[in-house]
Design a protein that fits this description.
This protein is an alpha/beta fold and 253 residues long. It is built from 8 helices and 7 strands; from the N terminus they run βαβαβαβαβαβαααβ. The chain binds nicotinamide-adenine-dinucleotide. Nicotinamide-adenine-dinucleotide binds next to α1, α4 and α6.
Amino acid sequence: MSTTEQRVAIVTGAARGIGAATAVRLAAEGRAVAVLDLDEAACKETVEKITAAGGRALAVGCDVSDEAQVEAAVARIVDELGAPTILVNNAGVLRDNLLFKMSASDWDTVMNVHLRGAFLMSRAAQKHMVDAGFGRIVNLSSSSALGNRGQVNYAAAKAGMQGFTKTLAKELGKFGITANAVAPGFIATEMTKVTGERLGMGFEDFKAAAATQIPVQRVGEPEDIANAVAFFTGDAAGFVSGQVLYVAGGPLN
Ligand SMILES: NC(=O)c1ccc[n+]([C@@H]2O[C@H](COP(=O)([O-])OP(=O)(O)OC[C@H]3O[C@@H](n4cnc5c(N)ncnc54)[C@H](O)[C@@H]3O)[C@@H](O)[C@H]2O)c1
């Protein structure tokens, strides 16, 4: 692939939140972007934002934990947008509960979306990266990977994303493919809004309380994460691989 050709990126969970901001950011970097989420219609807003700014984007409905849907989605992206050489595994869900109250199905759902989803998407996309001799994979981890009360499933999945990332970096480096993880702290999205509601707090109060615990004294915005992903997916980041970048407004213990 010549470097003047437009690179194709897939962003999963891109209908809203961090994924939507990342899709818009990568499009602004000149990428053609597959905006992938559970519901194709829900991707419309992100796609319109990209096309209104003069970019190229495609809405793709796909459950990342479903093998057949992932294979079909990637094949469709190759046909309609081009072979993907950038993949951002961002799709995610919460099923929080204390261990003794957590159902096996809530454990499985979180493992399936984050880990199985990232595995299936990476396996389907990597062959196009190998063919191109270039690839960028970015996986969304979390500060919860370090342990977080009420999130035994999510913390395990997000720590798993880090081992997954480092292994991809080792296996795929010789093909010009890098793999890195971005681990956000508190980012204002629907996900944290719902967490606040579960704790009986309005979103503004929840964000203000969180901000007091963060060194830069504010919560993160989806664009804070999109900026970090843009760095890792850039052509200039080819010697940065297997890293976990915490983007949390300060260091984490
Ligand atoms: N918001 C935070 O504070 C925060 C912190 C650390 C990590 N993260 C991680 O960042 C990522 C994005 O989080 P967000 O806050 O934007 O969440 P969000 O809930 O706003 O958006 C997640 C998106 O993923 C999609 N999705 C869920 N299951 C899917 C599936 N099986 N297939 C395809 N798409 C699916 C949802 O439909 C949704 O559009 C997640 O991986 C999350 O765990 C978020």
